[in-house]
Amino acid sequence: MSAPQIVLIGPMGVGKTTVGELLAERLGSTFRDTDADIVAAEGREIAEIFVDDGEPRFRALERQAVRAAVAGHPGVLALGGGAILDAGTRELLAGHTVVYLSMDVEEAVKRTGLNAARPLLAVNPRKQWRELMEARRPLYTEAARVVVATDGRTPEEVAAAVLDALELKEA
Ligand SMILES: Nc1ncnc2c1ncn2[C@@H]1O[C@H](COP(=O)(O)OP(=O)(O)O)[C@@H](O)[C@H]1O
Ligand SMILES: O=C(O)C1=C[C@@H](OP(=O)(O)O)[C@@H](O)[C@H](O)C1
Ligand SMILES: [Mg+2]
């Protein structure tokens, strides 16, 4: 059992899953995503868990998934965007190589603006994003060892910037 090489946090749509897969490939290691772990364990989609059981139950399942992954996954790990809202999950991240992938509000609106599948963002997305970023930014910053901005960068460029920031060499 060993700790993940990299744990990715940041808002939804910032690229944690996409960049995490690229990083695992470049490091010759494996990728794991706590959202996927939760879906596999529960046999239900994330949206279904939110609707049927509520957000507090989802955060508890997410805490269990993070606990298992930080203890047993030696590669690259991506968390869900709201994982850091839970104090217990934040404690589990202490001492790990946590990278905060950031984007500004305009980039978030641009990336998710045309996606009507997110009810949270359906009305006045810019205002919703601003509030979400203001609430979560201090938690992301506190939990992370380094911050990597993704604005105007391709996933490949973001992955390269993460490796640079952590002084990790490709396999
Ligand atoms: N750097 C980027 N620039 C533009 N689009 C991106 C970038 N990174 C990810 N995306 C796109 O944004 C969407 C969400 O990416 P994803 O990796 O699922 O984010 P997260 O896991 O952080 O929610 C995907 O469609 C992905 O292709
Ligand atoms: O920001 C959030 O609260 C959430 C982000 C999602 O993960 P991604 O950040 O990978 O989209 C997923 O965990 C769930 O829908 C809740
Ligand atoms: Mg994801």
TrEMBL record:
One of its GO terms (cellular component) is cytosol. Its EC number is 2.7.1.71. Mg(2+) binds at residue 17. Its main location: cytoplasm. It catalyses: shikimate + ATP = 3-phosphoshikimate + ADP + H(+). Belongs to the shikimate kinase family. Monomer. This is Shikimate kinase.
